[in-house]
Amino acid sequence: MEDYKYLFKVVLVGNAGVGKTCLVRKFTQGIFPPGQSATIGVDFMIKTVKVGEDKIKLQIWDTAGQERFRSITQSYYRSAHAIVLVYDVACQPSFDCLPEWLGEIEQYANRKVLKILVGNKVDKEDEREVPERIGKNFADANGFDYFLETSALDATNVDTLFQEVATRLTNDMKLTDERFHNFKSNENRDGNISILDRVLERAKCANCRT
Amino acid sequence: MKTSNLAELAARTKSEDCVSPKQDNIHSPPFRKGHFRRSSYESAKIQLDHIKYSGRRGPLYVGRVNSLNSCDLNEAARSTQTVVTFNLDRDRDRECSTSFASIETVPTMDSGLGSVCSKRSSLDRRSQTSNSHFECCSTSDFDSHSSPRLCDDAGFVEEEEEDVELHSRNRDSKLKPNNQQDQSKRRIVLPALNIAKTLFSRNRQSEITSKLWRPNNRIFKESNCISTTGLIFENRPSNLPAKSEEEAAKHRALYQELIEQAKKKEAKEAKEQKRLRELQRKMEDQVAASCKIWVEQILPKWAEIKTSKKCKELWWQGIPSLVRGKVWSLVIGNDLNLTPDLYEICCNRAKMKLEEINKMRAERSISNPIGGAPPSPTNRENTIDSIQLDVGRTFPHLGIFQEGGPYYDLLINLLGAYVCYRPDIGYVQSMSFIAAVLLLQMDPYPAFVAFANLLNRPLQVSFFRLKKPQMTAYFIAFDQFFEQELPELYAHFDAHDVRSDIYLIEWIYTMFAKSLPLDVTCRIWDVYLRDDEDFIFKTAIGILRTFEQHLLSLEFDEIVHFLCHIPDSLTSVELFANIEPLMKPYINTGETAKCKRSFVQILAEVNERVHPYHHLYATEGISMLTLDPNLCTNGLSSSNSTSSGLSTSTHTSISGIKISRSLSFFLRDMLKSPPAASSEQSFTLKKENGMPMSSSSCNLSN
């Protein structure tokens, strides 16, 4: 029986061929598979990371990129704690599709899901089509929680990415747990609580991330 | 005059019969390039000897030889000289005339430490005859010596030229009488002598000097009784006291034991290898036999024989790869009536399209981006773009579908042609795997025909065209079939929320080509083409059954990970043994409610319940199949009402469709049913101990 404090479900989405599977493989197995098959449906990996003293288990769902599979992959969004939207910095179309993906996320994922934008393949600096600034601006304008450029090939920021995901989710979780306990204890003390308070509490909660 | 003739003769015969690469080393220094490496012990010994004898001349050497011959070998060993041993063939010794044999041997009594050939060549060039030396070297002692072994000084190589000179003189003088007798027949050949380089040689066994001399019509065959181990008559360095009898015996026994063990091991390995070879041959024979039957008996009368029991049995064993492509083509047929012309047209169109896209892309990267138009639902020709991406990612371990590989263009053409043939479907990821398997078995055009017709089968149409109601029916049918066949594992999966779609999607889309080893995939396809789509689901159950015990011991994470990455070690024998129980015809007595149903039956029943509302999906697109997860454990409520609340009471009549709770989530999502507030999934992940572990603020917000 593994012991871990929290279990988080991280879902990777993005166009076909942007390197989602390679990112996951690099992070979970430390290898960059030179010949990687296209993902059909979904691939699944697990990795345990440490945030401070806590062991955090990440369930990483690596989805098929092709548009055809969206109606299948969207069912994986539902219970995701974090969605990592990946594009290829050397492939403009993969960046152009981001609004579509955002639409999917907004439609099917939880409202408070942690959204991360990742520009992959920065090792292809010569072929770069999407400048870092553009990616950063897009992330800021569309309510992403975090933006990062990575390379699964030379491991740039791969560990940072998932570590950041784990850290942020853990912190959120701790905050939530705390609030939940306070809320409960308040409830117990007062014996009753007005609906207005409840609504206020929820609003605060909803704003806490954005 | 005579001597010079002799020398010439010697030199000539030498070059004829001996390998003598170096010629001009008469004045070479004692240590030359190409010397064998010596241990420090040997070197020290040699130097010592050298110092001792450097001032002396030939006679000393001869004296030494004589003393060696006359004295006990052990004595020689204990003398200050390092002793080199070599074997002379006993017979040869006897054959030789007394003086002759000895003299012939002397020049080759090379210590092995120096380069023999150079010395010999120098010998041959020498033309001086020295009777005194001859006298000294008269080797009746040699002959009379009981032992075939002769000893020489390891320091021999270090000796000054005079010593070398001695040998040549000796030999030449010996040859003289023979030469007078019969010059025409005279040939001098170095006798075969295997000489150990050093007495206690380490890793130097490879360099054994062995030459053949044939003095005066007497042919000495290369001795074969000599081995490096045999040459060492001293089992320890000479400066150490001899072993006691007891110890020696013990060591001999140990040595024997080692040899015995090695022999036993070798025998065992040989036996195992033989067994494997036998097995292999047996299998090959079997394949060859079945191949013969397929080619000679089945294929000529395909139409009549294909449904026969014998043929089906043979089919189950697997189609030999020689005829596999042919059989597949025959079975898949060509209901679509595709023609080579059509294929040609599609291919050309695909090429044009591809060039167009590549050109557009090049232009766009120069001028600034203009967002790609989303593919229209009726024309998915643009998906041709992603073919290039996926072809290189097809069976990467085979390395033949990658750019520059022999199948790269073939696969691109086939998929491109299909996209142009069916622009409404376009390219769907995973098609590359199916096309690749077909291409491995047949030529491009038959592969295209097989591909198009295969994708026209109901299962493939449902999935590749994303017909959600049909897909739903397949998922539900599999769910029920799974429960019926492997109830324990089914319960385990359900308890851990392992949904069948997680693994089933890849299995169905690629028809196991991506998930299983290629040979296993081909065997599955063999039977799939014989039995149709239900075999895909039977195979799925077969895989689960193969790993059932293992899967039962795993948790959610491991189960999903395992099923997403089936071990490559899975063999077709193992898998088919686990599918076989599913192949028996189901006897439906109708008496017990628990009687087993075949997959086809289950699917038909499910379809009946799902499909009456098919037209409604088509028009409204959503939510006709409302799945309330709270009810799903009792039954799936397929309702003609859009309200999930109502469905509970009004549609109990169709609660026969049972599906697992977890799958119901997936199906609901897939069918794009808008999430009803009541069934909003709680955002709680449970730890194994059952303690709810709040994982998101979602709990609060509800």
TrEMBL record, chain A:
**Which InterPro entries does the entry mention?**
P-loop_NTPase (IPR027417), Rab (IPR050227), Small_GTP-bd (IPR005225), Small_GTPase (IPR001806)
Q: State any GO CC term.
A: cytoplasmic vesicle
Q: Which domain of life is it from?
A: Eukaryota
What coarse category fits the chief subcellular location reported for this protein?
Answer: membrane
Which Gene3D superfamilies is this protein grouped with? P-loop containing nucleotide triphosphate hydrolases
- For the keyword Protease, the answer is no
Please give the cofactor(s) recorded in the UniProt entry for this protein: Mg(2+)
Q: Which reaction does it catalyse?
A: GTP + H2O = GDP + phosphate + H(+)
Q: Which cellular compartments is it found in?
A: Cytoplasmic vesicle, Autophagosome membrane; Golgi apparatus, cis-Golgi network; Golgi apparatus, trans-Golgi network membrane; Lysosome
Enzyme Commission (EC) number: 3.6.5.2
How would you describe this protein's topology in the membrane? Lipid-anchor
**GO-annotated molecular function:** G protein activity; GTP binding; metal ion binding
Keyword annotations from UniProtKB, A to Z: Cytoplasm, Cytoplasmic vesicle, Golgi apparatus, GTP-binding, Hydrolase, Lipoprotein, Lysosome, Magnesium, Membrane, Metal-binding, Methylation, Nucleotide-binding, Prenylation
PANTHER family in the cross-refs: RAS-RELATED PROTEIN RAB
The family line of this record is: Belongs to the small GTPase superfamily. Rab family.
Protein function:
The small GTPases Rab are key regulators of intracellular membrane trafficking, from the formation of transport vesicles to their fusion with membranes. Rabs cycle between an inactive GDP-bound form and an active GTP-bound form that is able to recruit to membranes different sets of downstream effectors directly responsible for vesicle formation, movement, tethering and fusion. RAB30 is required for maintaining the structural integrity of the Golgi apparatus, possibly by mediating interactions with cytoplasmic scaffolding proteins.
UniProt-recorded name of the protein: Ras-related protein Rab-30
* Organism (species): Acrobeloides nanus
Organism placement in taxonomy: Eukaryota, Metazoa, Ecdysozoa, Nematoda, Chromadorea
Automatic annotation (TrEMBL), chain B:
Comp. bias regions, Basic and acidic residues: 165-175
Q: What is this protein called?
A: Rab-GAP TBC domain-containing protein
Kindly give the InterPro entries that the UniProt entry links to this protein. Rab-GAP-TBC_dom (IPR000195), Rab-GAP_TBC_sf (IPR035969), Rab_GAP_TBC_domain (IPR050302)
Biological process, per Gene Ontology: vesicle-mediated transport
- Which intervals of the chain are annotated as region Disordered? 12-31, 162-187, 677-702
Tell me yes or no: is Ribosomal protein among this UniProt entry's keywords.
no
> In the UniProt record, which is one GO cellular component term?
vacuole
Q: Which PROSITE patterns match?
A: TBC_RABGAP (PS50086)
Entry's Gene Ontology molecular function annotations: GTPase activator activity; small GTPase binding
Origin: domain of life: Eukaryota
The record's section on Pfam families has: RabGAP-TBC
Coiled coil start-end: 248-289
* Keywords linked to the UniProt accession: Coiled coil
Residue ranges of every copy of the Rab-GAP TBC domain listed in the record:
318-532
The species this protein belongs to is Acrobeloides nanus
Q: Compositional bias of type Polar residues: which residue ranges?
A: 692-702
Keyword presence, Coiled coil? yes
Lineage summary: Eukaryota, Metazoa, Ecdysozoa, Nematoda, Chromadorea
